[in-house]
Design a protein that fits this description.
The chain is 64% helix and 0% strand. The protein is mostly helical.
């Protein structure tokens, strides 16, 4: 080491530190504009893919199978005792329709004529 000359090998170009901030700002502005451009392109691609999937999707699951499996599941809950009549009716959009269907199934075998009850007085 003693034989090596004591010369400063690290030289800084003239006006390096005066121009450094301008160079950094210029590089960052170029990177920032490129990043904004790529982000906007990525966002546009995501929107286009989302719209394409929504518009061109095909329902592969038939709705009849869903309703059958749902009714089987509902029957299992009812038979197991987890759900009662109140819970089933509260889950329905139109509980009166369900009650009418039950009445039609239970009393469908009977021939009840509404006209035969008009003359009777029920006090």
């Amino acid at each position: 080491m003693k034989n090596l000359p004591k010369k400063n090998i690290f030289k800084v170009p003239e006006n390096y530190f005066e121009n450094l901030s301008d160079q950094i700002i210029e590089k960052n502005s170029n990177k920032r504009s490129q990043m904004i451009y790529f982000r906007s392109m990525a966002a546009a691609a995501v929107v286009l893919i989302g719209v394409a999937l929504f518009v061109f999707r095909q329902d592969n699951i038939p709705t009849d199978n869903i309703h059958l499996s749902m009714s089987d599941d509902i029957n299992l809950y009812i038979n197991a005792g987890y759900w009662g009549a109140e819970e089933v009716l509260s889950l329905s959009e139109n509980p009166n329709l369900i009650l009418e269907q039950i009445i039609a199934e239970e009393w469908g075998n009977y021939n009840i004529n509404e006209m035969e009850f008009e003359d009777d007085n029920w006090y």
